[in-house]
Amino acid sequence: MGIQTIDEKAFKNCKKLQYLYLNSNRITEIHENAFVEYLELLRLYLMMNQISELSANVFRNLQKLTYLGLHANKFSDLPQNIFYSLYNLKTLNLESNQLKTPRVEWFLSLENLQILWLNSNQIEELPRNIFIPLKNLNSLFLYFNKLKVIHSDPFRGLLNLKSVELYNNQIEAIDERFIDNTGVQSLTAFNNFCVNQAIFDYITSRMTMRLALQNCFKNFDNLLPARISKLEKADVEFNTKIQTIQNENQQLITTTNQLQVKLNNITAENIKIRSEMQNITKGNEAIRTDVANLNTRVDTISRDQSTLKNEVKNQTLIITSLIHDNKNQSSVIRDQGLIIAEIQDENQQLKEGAVKLQDQIEAQGTVIEELDSFVENQGSKITELQDNLEELKYLVYELSNRPCACKKIILISLK
């Protein structure tokens, strides 16, 4: 069945947890305090679930988090400040959801973000200042969305941005200043409607760009050698939307070091052939798209494998440390066992002494009973003596009142 709900106390005894894998379940709900105690968490995997909503406070205590995977869920929107506390986040993956318009507020605190995945959503427009806070952004993935226009404002000041992937959108125009505002070295924009050819005017000498612009240009008339001579490699092959190709464009082959432009001489004789090859061309386009997607996935898997290797190393170190600790604990337990055995021996001796003492107490009790009996007998005798003494006193008193009798008695006594 898989996990469906993460409640407040789901992992209450894991405060030092650094890696948490909750991907590939059926999670639909996460309590806003589910992660509140995980102050050491570095990587959180929540992808491939069925989550459609999250509380704005759910990640508030994860200041050390460097990776957050939320892809392949059902998000159509996210709270404005949901990532506000993730100051150290380096990778954020939001691909394969249902997002339409990303919020500027999502990225206000993500100055250390390096990789951002927004591909495979339903994004139609990028807000003007959307990426400006991301000063350290290196790679941006926006392919398989519904973008129509790429303005330069969202990318202003992103000097660390090296790679942008815009392929398989509905782009009709790209602001030519878009590249000039960034450090982009790789732009992938194939399978779009049109790319402004003036974009080549803003390629500076410091750039060694690779362009992938298959199926983009409607017209090559203005694609002059001066515009693209600075490119390391430009891939514009399989442009099925080419309407006119002039003979002077053959000069591109000799003026560009690694320019690979495959131009067909469109003549009356090959128009018929071209129409017959159209279906094959479309098939090739689909294959190219699939290959590009596979390459992207391979790159993702490679990065994940590298991450997993590092995690395995870390876990190995942790296990080694635990084994060492267990050995120490075993030694301590053995010592404690010896101490317990000694205490048990002492307790046994104390028990035996207590039994002997009890016997002595019982014997003393018997003696005390005998003494009590003796005292009682002596008391009876004392009582008798007291009675005799009283009688004697009375007799003396009587005798003292009878002198004659006393004399007789005295005489008798003298005799």
UniProtKB/TrEMBL annotation:
This is Uncharacterized protein. It holds the Pfam family LRR_5. It comes from Chironomus riparius. It comes from the Eukaryota. Residues 340-402 form a coiled coil. Keywords: Coiled coil, Leucine-rich repeat, Repeat, Signal. The lineage of its organism: Eukaryota, Metazoa, Ecdysozoa, Arthropoda, Hexapoda. SUPFAM superfamilies: L domain-like. PROSITE patterns: LRR (PS51450). GO terms for cellular component: extracellular matrix; extracellular space.
